[in-house]
Amino acid sequence: MMNAQQQPSAVTMPRAESSPAGRRSRLSSSTAARIALIPAALITVVCFYVFVGWTILISMTRSRLLPVYNFVGLDQYKRLFANDRWWTAMENLAIHGTLFILGCTVIGYALAIMLDRITRGESLFRTVFMLPLSMSFIVTGAIWQWLLNPTLGIQDAVRDLGWTDFVFNWIVRPDRAIYTLAIAGIWQQVGLCMALFLAGLRGIDPNIWKATRVDGIPTWRVYTNIITPMLRPVFFSVFVLLSALVLKSFDLVVALTGGGPGFSSDLPARFVVDHILNRQELGLGAAGAFMMLCTIAAVVSPYVYYELRTPRKEA
Amino acid sequence: MRYQRLVLYLLLTSATLAMLAPILIMVSTSLKPMDEIRDGSLFALPQAPTLAAWGKAWGSACIGASCEGLSGQFANSFVIVLPSLFLSVGLGALTGYALSLWRVPYANILFGAILVGLFIPPQVTLYPMIVMIRELGLFGSVPGLVLVHVIWGLAFVTLLFRNFFQSVPQDLLKAARIDGAGFLAIFWYVMLPLSLPVFAVAMILQFTYIWNDFLLGLTFSSPESQPVTVALNNLVGSQFGEQEYNLNMAATMLTALPTVLVYLFSGRLFVRGIAAGAVKG
Question: Which of B80, B162, B163, B183 has the most A C-beta neighbours within 10 Å, making it the best mutation to test the interface with A?
């Protein structure tokens, strides 16, 4: 979690307050601090906020290959909402998002609990579970594209073992391809969930375990009734992180299915990039991008609010 | 009790195998010649291991019209990653330091504004960014890609350093100021040595993110500055003729190798940072 490293500052006095040292050096130092913030402020204002505004502006024009500023109101949004491919992408986002977040959370939490309970070999297991995290989504997509290939991958291998009727051809089936995305996604990101949950479990006061042992509560009940509710903030963080990840999901779908067969496994992020870069539908792509931003804002704004509130409370 | 532990280890070992299997199969396939792949099983070990596919992936595989393998794009990735890495970590560290230890007006508002930037999907600002890079005359060039990565890395690195510097006692800054040190001197001689572990974490994660980037490389690179992830996707994704799976696997492993090595050698630092970095996705 982001706030894990935020320890309450022991200092209560105002920051960088006057010292007996020379007034001139202090003045210039404060100025230096302001100057040092100029690049970051510039990038933030221009590249984050002005650019987002610009995209919203474009989404209200008829721009195709190049931006033109003839405003047509919400026409592009009407086109977007009438676009079947967009709705397929949104539906896929819901399916993939649910499966991916659920799978990552459940498996990650299970792995973390198991790692928390063993005494030896933890670092070895942890290293393996987190290994896919170091690879790019393009690599993950390439690996799974091949494993899921019906003629040479898992289906073929299982048939060779004797089950000649075995069928696992989801990646080439328009109604199933979207589910393969979750398989590859979970493989890649489950280590992240595990690490976050493990950190959470390690933060549990050992006295709680002692108390439950004295009371003779079975281990599984301690987890379901005591530990899991205590880890609510961790579950919240994991949910936000995975949601943000899933909404931006672009590389994995490009590398794994290419959005196919047809557009059956398309996702909004790919829809937007495709319309901006390849289809010369800048306005429509911008409208889609704004919808992405709205979706992410709905998930993330409570989280950002929480992050911003915490340090102020310490000061 | 002992029985329970046995079950735990059995479960964990099977999970380990499930996680490792795809990678092991990739490596084993990359060492097989094509007819062995066509006739044999996915799980079979290579009968006569050969590095031919690796050599081809490196030096002579055809991506589009050119048949020079991935070596050029592999080098491109390094040329893009290294300056991006130092510039983005440097800028983020300086920003985090100024924001948390110095009294700057509106520091909290600025930090909040940067934090929000962490969640803006790159797709949303993609087009304006293309226009900006083009207007600067940097489109398709390595400096253009570096700039884009520095911009996209800023929020994450700033967050990492801000959270660290927030925990540094203000007295340290005061003592240094009484000794006459200024803004940069304190950063360089006091805060930098103090924050070396955070620097390491930031470096490792930025390396991983920039190396693994696909969207920005796809959008802002030219054939001359193309990073290896984009080339890999072109190689694996091209549907002309029969796929050479051993070549694809070797190319995939080659692309993954630098970040996997960084991960294996940095161990705990990677783990510590990945949580904070996950939001960047």
Answer: B183
